[in-house]
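User:
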Amino acid sequence: MVVGVAAAALAGAAPAGARVLNAESILPPGQSGYVSLTGLTSGGGSPHAYDQQSPFIGFRRKPFGFHQPARSTERPFPGVTITRDAYGVPNVVGADDLAAWKGAGYAVAQDRLFQLEAFRHATRGERALVTGKGDVETDLVTHRDYYTRAELERQHDRLPVRFRQRLEAYRDGINAWITHVRTNPLDVPAEYVATTSSLAAWTVMDSLRIGVFLARTVPSGDGEELRNLRALQAEGMRPAVLDALLPVQPPRQVSTIPRSEGTFPQGRALSAKQVTAARDRSLAFAATLPGTPASLARATARKSELDPGEIGRVGGSSMLAVRAPGNRAFLFNGPQLGFSAPELFVELEVHAPGLDVRGVTAPGLPVIGIGHNGNVAWGITSGLSDEDDLYAEKLVPGEKEKYWYNGEVRSMDCRDVTIRWKDPVTTLLDGALPSIGSTRKRVCRTVHGPVQSVVGNVAYARRYAIWGRELETIEGLDLVNRARTIQDVDAAARRLTWNENLMAADSQGNIGYWHPGLVQLRPAGWDQRLPLPGTGEAEWEGLVPRERMPHVINPKQGWLSNWNNVPSQGWTTGDGPASERVTGPFDRDAYLARLAGALKALPSPTFADLQATIRRAGSVAQQRPLASARLRKASRGATGEAAKVLGVLTAWSGDYVATDAKGTVDPGVATWEAFKTAAADLAVAPFAKGAKAFEDRPGTSHAFDITAKEAYALRTLSPAGYREAAATTAAAMTKRFGTPDPARWRAPREMYDMSAQGAQQPPPLPFFDRGTYEQLLEVGP
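Assistant: Predicted structure:
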């Protein structure tokens, strides 16, 4: 039924013209971010390190259309011209595809040479050579969970010849700039000196490793099976805490694809009875597993808690698309990867015969990840679906590297790796020598995948659905770059192997959404939230067919929104690698969906209306408007201290940006945060031990968002429970501010903890729940 609806929508989509009516973008802090030795000695630095931060704070953006006025021009190679606009964004024009991407490699190296170096070290498992001994374990994860050179070469050999040639041209462009700085030492980024790193030539393999990292880590990261197991063990294997805080299908879940457009179960749709039976079977198996130390329950920390801007960090993001009268459409995308200097993204524009594209990508990859061409605009957000599983391998007694599978003893595939480290000097140019060293580690794989931990007689190995196929995503993105219609995007989406949500609009006003990637067909008789037995009885039944992955084109409601929520009704949460997926009606996308629906409801929405929509989305604590009805209901019976707190909350709009003359925000900001904590403590009290395994704060990009515990509390507490939480909040606020007067419960404006990857330190950045990069577009005929 769903496939038929999508086909009908495609059949009605008219061919696109070539009109981008309005386009603006912002990439705070700026296009550059590193300091040359010339800039360091002169006290100047890069003029484009932070020049986009101030407009970002003021909700202003720069023009994002093709061929902005040039402030500089150079021709580094025959057939290649590079101009740069007022913000230093390069516009590369090539005589052909290879010339253009060679120029792109050159321009990206000019802006982000040391970032390329940092990415290379990280994806080789050599991060500790730049950042010091503390990252040895992070490097171990890279050696353990990714590929040997021979395995990577096999992926490379499966790429189309034209793309292999493009990778070589991009490499040559990077190396041309490296040759330049070798002969012009004052153009060397100062970070090379600080980390005593050498200027080595770039290779195609370096770009491939970056592509693999991005496809594997940004969309989803690893799972949380060991956290869930630890929670069960703390509760004596009673499943109440798991069912409350991590339901397989949250009640009233917010999905991007409305139910009216069809449902997309992840594999076979299961009844409630089947879900319960699978849970009970997995509980019995889990009872045989050894106790889970807290350190192992946080096994994903090395991938999920990297600093903003570092490759390998799991991302978030928001986006919306709205159809408008006159065959127009609006598209917004704000990928949220944490603010850093420089950012993970770099912006550029590339033109060649048959290719006109502008947007952002990661340094090292010759393809645009997010942006627009003359016909189509598109954006991405992390899909955050659970496309990997943890298998508990039963070890042979007395054998660390042998395990049982299908009734036979198997040997793990193991190898020793050497991890080198070098502690950086404390100051630049001081002549100090770093401390250096190395250590040898052993990494193993079973039939299921990399062994990530061993507890007693069990080895935990992770199986990835995308294993060995990450680089296919580069092909799919290249097809998106060249798309002329929404139909072209649909075809390209089926080639993507990563789980990044894709949303697009074409210049005839068609919009679409895809939740692509490779996702496993799990065995129906086992609970997806817990480790699976590795003995061969819980194997996957294959992968979800591409045509059955969630997607929709031109939904009847006329708009789409996504903020990392579930893609469709019927889709499950897996083991909860993304806690925001289990918040039900309080999911942050519920607020973004309200705004998108309101934009669609305007008689003739304008680009200014889109701008105002995004301002509201990025400056309001999303759950406060969503909780209005419950707060008002609780207020009607409240007295005393509870009434005072509920009065503060109902009077507050949710805006955490507006400040008074002293730079402090509305009392509702701090009160709301304290109220959510009090409500969560009250709601999870019946299973406090198990609840400790679950997170207690939202991600750093979503300071005012909600946790799984808080969402559970807001949707399950009665009005009396709300009043009890409010009374507890009053005591906490009085203690914090030293006064019972709510008018004085004003805190300073929340600031963002920006990570500095280079020598140039960032200026202060007030917090917004907004994209690391933002693009707003209006397309039409």
